[in-house]
Amino acid sequence: MGDFSRNTFQLTNIMHQLITWEPVSNPAHYVGIRLQQGVPVLDADWNELEDIRRSELLAMIRYFIGNGVPAGNQGFQILSTSGQNNFSVAAGIVIVDGLLVINQNITTYQTQPNAAGLPALATPGADRTDIVYLDTWEKEVTGSGGGDPRLIDTRIGIETAVRVKREWVVRVKENTNNLSSIVKEKGHSYLPLARINRRAAVAVITSDMIIDMRKTGITLAEHIKVPIFVQIGLEMLDVARFVVMLTGLRTSLFARLRQGQLPHQTASVQDENILLIALQEVMNRAHIGEVQTASRNMDNQDALQFMRSLYDVQKDFLGVLESIGNVANAAQAFITQYSKYLDGSTADFIKGLKLALDNQDLLAAVIAQEELNSFLSAPVTNLPEGTVNVFYNSVIPFEALTAGSTYAFTFEVESQVTSPLGSEEFSIQVAVSAASWTFTVSQNNVILTNLGGKTSIAVSVTPNAAETQATLTVTAIAVRNPLVRSPQPGIPLQIGVEPPVGTFFFYADTRLNVQGQLEIRQNHLTRTTGRDILFKIKNDNSGEIRTYRIDHYISPNVADTTGWSPLQASPASQDVQVNPNTTTDYFAKVHGPKSPAPPPPIGTTGEIVATATLIEINGTPVVGGATVEIRINFIVIA
Fold first, then answer.
1. Which of 69, 235, 532, 569 could join 75 in a cystine, given CB atoms 3.0 to 4.6 angstroms apart?
2. Same domain assignment for residues 214 and 294
3. CATH number where 601 lies
């Protein structure tokens, strides 16, 4: 026993009983020790600090992690071995009442550390059950009396601090199947390891006699699930979107079946039933994923693995459909198109679910499945289809932005979707590119009537001097079909500069990629009709017919711009009349070099620039009318 002046540590009643199973009177509730200046450092203070820290750690491990063996090792597994009345104890680690117990090397009952004094196992005269258990305790180690001589400082011949060592031994209690009958020694902890069903007159313990009682795989990281979340640029995947994607697949398939829009033809009632079972497997798999995800029991890696299983079950369904449900090629067109969304089709510009899975890209896999869901829902209008726009209207106060001041930006959300519900819910996502700037949004979800429903969203932004510039982006996303989302890019903001005024001219084509670029296919640029880029012109004034002059050009980042049009030197121009309280489309047509000239290389980047200027109100010319310029980055893709 070490030479200690006193022991001042005292657990709280609850903690003491959790660790020692014994009550304590007048408990202290200390959780730390603070050293004061000018006072002596006593061994009791030092030791109490260690005891406080240790007791909380043991309680945390014992009651929030538990007893058992972490994943990936065989700690203290009881195994058969050669010889009579003996067994092996595997190397590894185990947690017992919060204590980490380590067996460095495989050993046996007869040769294990601390085996001295253990009773020899006897061959049973009749069948019986024995329990094997771990007994662990701690003891103090000093530098003298057969202890550890390293604890004595040889320069002065004085022993330093006493060490505490954890000891263990594997014991056997014969003719019992639990630990209730063993005599528990104070300061010892016990853990059942195995049950051995001994057979009469058989001295060798074989593997078929041993029943493992250890709790394995208790690694906390394996069982705490961080809910699904991926964000790349403005594209975000969360639990809600993953659930909606799975719901969309299940309900679209069921709607097709119910409305007779699932092409197939079988040769018998039996084949029809088999086909329906295969279809049900797909819907059941989706439903299982919905439940697991909604209950926060699926993390990103689980979700990726689940998407692989979802791919497999859909392929299996198509295999059954092709083998017994495609009499007279009744389902061939459906099978072919479905397969393109699963496996990809370069000719149809479909990347496919498999490519995303091969790249281990969860976000891309979900987007691919959403595109497949849209294909499935098209004939039954099960999911919302169409467009939604977010128009920037105004900011109050309109002044040069100042750090620490708050500015209220107003946006209008307009639905142009169709669906069987008559109205759809949209989630509102707000992003400010400067992390130090703060913001609040008036509504996170809105419900809009299809084909024209509108509402206003207020976003309050407070700039921070740590970052002088930011981009404010507001995106509306259809809850039941995340592919339907507003394409409008964010508005640039800068401290010391007035924000943009409320505008009447908006980009409205396909959403930009995660790098903020419009992806334009190479063959779209080189075809005769070129590529039309959609913009919208909005006239909110009642009673005023407004006319705008729209100019646009393409500016590729290439040395030779021959064949590109229109170029900045001679932009395309058109006057567009917009009636009161109306939004009008404008298509900016752009071209790349046409044959026989080589097409623009894949990866070519540049800008499309469009400018709208107010030139007339009710037929009267306007001098110096308001002008809005929009610049959209593009990249050429295959």
1. 69
2. no
3. 2.60.40.10
